[in-house]
Structure formats: structure tokens, C-alpha cells
Amino acid sequence: MVRHLAAVVAAFALLSSAVPAGAAAPAPADAGKKPDRLADLLAKLRKPAAFKGDPKDVALGDLLDVLSKQHDVAFVVNEAAFRNAGVENVREAKTVVVATRLDGLSLGRFVDMVARSVGAVALVRRDYVELVHPAAVREMIVESAQDETAPPFTLVSAVYKETPLADALADLADEYDTTVVISPQAGDARNAFVSARLLNVPLDKALDLLAVQADLRVVKRGNAYLVTSADYVGLVHETELDRERHKAELERIKAGEPAGVPPVAAPAAAEKTAKDAARALRTPVSVECNATPFAEAVKKVVGDTGASVVLDPRLAGKADAPVTLKHDDLPLEAAVRLLAEVADLRAVRVSGVLFVTTAERADKLRAGGEGK
Q1: DSSP assignment letter at 90
Q2: Distance between CA atoms of 108 and 44, rounded to whole angstroms?
Q3: N or C: which end of the chain has fewer CB within 10 A?
Q4: How far does the chain reach from its first CA to its final CA, in angstroms?
Q5: How far apart are CA 161 and CA 276, in angstroms?
Q6: Which alpha helices (DSSP H) does the chain contain, by range?
């Protein structure tokens, strides 16, 4: 949630002996560059919390005022969102944070604990932190809206610029107290450079957005995340399906029903076709579009690669959503997935075909074992 990446480190060389007397020192390389307020805020949130005293039973408003003065960070409580949810005077709510010591605890994590203790979610904005009611966040995140009893979500805010994927994943794992494992099947893709500006993005989606830039996939296992190759994900998926089929077959035998017909091995021609389809989806492409209709951008990227990309006919006007993206030397499948994300759509691979549809339909396909 409110735990974030410090992205800006400034270095200045004092050229006292190297610059002749009376000569003007050269201007810094980033002179005139617009300051990155989000990166500055994230850097402050990663510094140790400097709250003295017991944070328990302190009015939320009073505690935030103290933190604001000590850390030069603006905090805003969205009281209207709480009133809409039937909660009045949230600034007067008493915090329920019990900590024997705050040494080493970052400001971001401390604010996250405080927010959770009063039933709030802390969101990082460009230059301030906003505390809102969870119901307001569920409206922003469709996946979470399906469960009204879900606890506050883990939202990621971070900035990465040409960072090795392995380093970015390790940073997220450390900052958000989660387990992220890169499998050996990922190969050299773990060192691919990734760039992202993430603001209040669910953790699983943040990992997906980083991994897909290296043509890798993320699989959740319990409370851990495995980053691996698309082919290995397919193998794991097939293994799970085989296990389920075997389980169902045993249940039928126990119930006295006739066993099913053993699966017939796929012909060599079919195997070759599947390999060709997978190879086409890995074709390196370049993406350069500026407010281009999504369907047109996808058509341009696919070109004559031979890859099978199908747009859901039920998308209607969503297929014309303007997308802007520029990236060189990207696997075709990764390019289509990124374009789909920009258009608020999702791409699901179904038997060698990349099917683009809405997020809800994509989740149903994955849940039903039809896509990945």
C-alpha cells in the first residue's frame, strides 16, 4: 500500500580546484529539469518514521499533523468518502497501533498501519498522501469490488527507470513484505531493463506489468509469486489440469462409473502448428503509437508476423480506445498485452491465439482453465 520506491538520487561535484579563478562553474546536467514530485514523496515515505511516544489511542488527525510537520509530507483525509460510507468524524477516530518501538520502520509502513487501524486505505498521490474509506478504493479496482468484505488491498506506488527486472522485483518484495521468486526458466530475461511509474496499483498487477516487459509471466502460489517463462506457465497449467482430470477419473471409478477414454496423443502436425504459433508470439516488434485507436495499433504491431491475435467482437467501442505507447524490441505478445493494459483491456493466450477482451472476461477464462 503506502510503501514506496525512492527514485531520485542527486549527485553534484564541487569543482573548486578544477575551475580557474573567476570562471563560472558548469551548470548541473539536470539544470532546468522539472522536479519529479512523486519520486520526492516516495523517497520521504521510505525514510524512518520519526514519531515519538505511543501511537496507540491518538486521534488520527492529531497524529497525521505531527507526522506532516516532522517529515514535510502532506496528508489529506477524504472525510466525504467516509461520510458516504456512514463514518462520521474520522479525524477524531482513535488509532489502534501497538508498537514497542518504531526503529527502522519506514514512514510509509507506519502510515499504512495507522490507516488500517482506523479502517482506512492510504493512497499515494503525486505530492500528498490521501486516506480514504476502502469502499472508495473498491470502486477503482474491479477485482476487489467482487468481495465487499475484503480487507484493505496492497497497493503499490513506485518509479522504475531502466531498472533490471530482478532488482525491481526484489525491491517490491522487500518494500511490501511479500515473496517473489524468479524461476530458472526465466533465463537471461531476469536482467531485462524495465521502466514503470506505478501509482496505487494492486501488487499482483504491478508484478505483471513489470514481468511482461521481459516477456515473463507471474503465477501466484499461496501468498507467494513465481515469475517465470510463458512456456513454463503453460506446462504448470497443463500439469494442474491433468491432476484435476486424474482426480475426477478416480472419483468416477470409486462411484462405479466406467472409466473415461484415455486421451489421444496430438498428431505431429498439430504439435508443429502449436510451436509455430508460440514462436510467432515471440517475434520482436517495435511499438510507436500516439492516441492511436487500439484495434489499429494492434493490427500495425501484428503486421505480417503470422501471429494470431483476435479481438473480442463484444468490445464494441472499447476497441477504438486511443492508446499511446513507445517501446523497441519487444516480444509481440508482450507488446499486445501492454497495449491492452493501456486500453484497460486484457490479453489471454488460448491455444496459441492471443485473445483480447475485457478484464472480467479474461479472469473468467483463466479461472475456467481456458486461457493464461
Answers
A1: G
A2: 8
A3: C
A4: 27
A5: 34
A6: 37-45, 60-71, 79-84, 107-117, 134-138, 142-145, 165-175, 203-211, 230-254, 268-281, 294-302, 332-342, 359-367
User: Residue 95 corresponds to which cell in the numbers above?
Assistant: 488509532
- Give the cell for residue 112: 499504512
C-alpha cell at 209: 506489468
Backbone angles phi, psi at 217, to 5 degrees: -130, 160
Q: Which residue has the cell 479472469?
A: 363
Alpha-carbon span 27 to 267, nearest angstrom: 68
Residue where the block lists cell 508443429: 272
Residue corresponding to grid cell 510507436: 288
**What is this structure's pTM?**
0.48
**What count of Cα atoms within 13 Å lies in the side-chain half-sphere of residue 325?**
28
List 292's β-bridge partners, or say none.
Answer: 323
Q: What are phi and psi of 367, to 5 degrees?
A: -65, -30
Cβ contact 124:132 at 8 Å = no
Residue 91 is classified by DSSP as G
User: Per the structure block, which three cell numbers stand in for 308?
Assistant: 494470431
CA–CA distance, 151 with 145 (Å, rounded to integer): 11
The answer to whether 237 and 372 have CB atoms below 8 angstroms apart is yes
If one counts every other C-beta atom within 10 angstroms of the C-beta of residue 225, the result is 22
Burial 243-265 (b: 16+ CB within 10 A, else e): eeeeeeeeeeeeeeeeeeeeeee
Residue 293, strand partner residues: 322
List pLDDT tens digits, range 192-249: 999 988 888 888 889 989 999 998 998 888 778 999 888 777 766 666 665 666 666 6
Residue 310, strand partner residues:
355
The secondary structure of 160-200 as a DSSP string is EEEEEHHHHHHHHHHHTT-EEEE-GGGGGGGG-EEEEEEEE
Rounded Cα distance, 143 and 288, in Å: 30
Cell of 135: 469502499
